[in-house]
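Throughout our pipeline, every protein is held as a single compact record rather than as scattered files. The record that follows is passed on verbatim for readers who wish to inspect the format.
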Amino acid sequence: MELNVLRSAMTLISFIVFLGIIVWAWNRQRSASFDEAANLPLLDDGSGVDSTGPRSQGAKQ
């Protein structure tokens, strides 16, 4: 197989995979799970521990 034919085939395969990813990402059925994943960093985990760790309560416990 000629090298240019192989390059063209790989370009076409890559483009088809790219289009598949676009269709998968913009699928309405996945919208709810993507919205949930987007809000995960904003949710409170309820642990009651602040980001500074044990130093906020004093070095000795």
Notes: The mean pLDDT is 83. Residues 1-26 form one domain.
